[in-house]
Design goal:
Rossmann fold, alpha/beta, about 15% strand, about 40% helix, six-stranded parallel beta sheet, 6 strands
Length: about 210
């Protein structure tokens, strides 16, 4: 079973990497594809150039073979609509392969506003990464989807290709890419918030310098 994890990764940091590994180990994924987006739809645009973010991501995961950097959204260009990316994976993997999309709890709360959310749920299982004790859904539409699709046993994800929702408790590290960029712009060190190799690349490229 393959997982997908998208984001700006601007830059990638230990908060991204730890939750990715949590899900890989809990769900026993054969592979997790990390997908830097090209142009954000619901958030501010990335600061670093696409090739810089991709290079930092590759160096961050080079020694963890189950994590794979995937550049299809960057090479496609334009707004990074999840539904388009999922169609690409379905063309590659076929309609029957179980496929999981990792989403944070905050992003999941806004799922109704995504482009074609029902189509998304018909193409993948949703793995909602949350902190212990977090509420499952506040929006009535989303709560209805959770009631219809939620499973408790992750083994059920392998029984069908898509359409289920599973809530996964993950390690919550209080790290943000915004804070890392701010520290770099101020000439301060964000060491121990992200891999040393990523920090070295950010320093060398000065992509976050003020």
């Amino acid at each position: 079973m393959i997982g997908l994890f998208g984001g700006t990764f601007d830059p990638v940091h230990f908060g991204h990497l730890r939750v990715a590994l949590d899900v890989v180990q809990h769900l026993r994924l054969e592979q997790l594809r990390l997908l830097p987006l090209a142009a954000a739809v619901h958030r501010r645009q990335p600061i670093a150039a696409p090739e810089q973010r991709m290079a930092m991501l590759r160096v961050a995961i080079h020694d963890e073979p189950v994590l794979v950097a995937d550049d299809r959204e960057l090479t496609r260009g334009g707004p990074s609509y999840t539904v388009d990316t999922l169609r690409s994976f379905r063309e590659e993997l076929g309609a029957e392969a179980p496929l999981c999309l990792l989403v944070g709890a905050d992003a999941f709360e806004g799922l109704r506003d995504w482009h074609r959310p029902l189509d998304i749920m018909e193409m993948v299982h949703l793995i909602v990464m949350q902190r212990p004790g977090a509420p499952t859904a506040r929006d009535p539409w989303l709560r209805d989807q959770v009631e219809q699709r939620r499973i408790q046993d992750p083994a059920s994800l392998r029984d069908q290709a898509a359409g289920l929702i599973y809530f996964q408790t993950v390690t919550q590290l209080d790290i943000s890419a915004t804070r890392i960029r701010r520290l770099l712009a101020q000439g301060k060190s964000p060491r121990y918030l992200l891999p040393d190799a990523v920090l070295a690349m950010a320093h060398a490229s000065r992509c976050y310098a003020s």
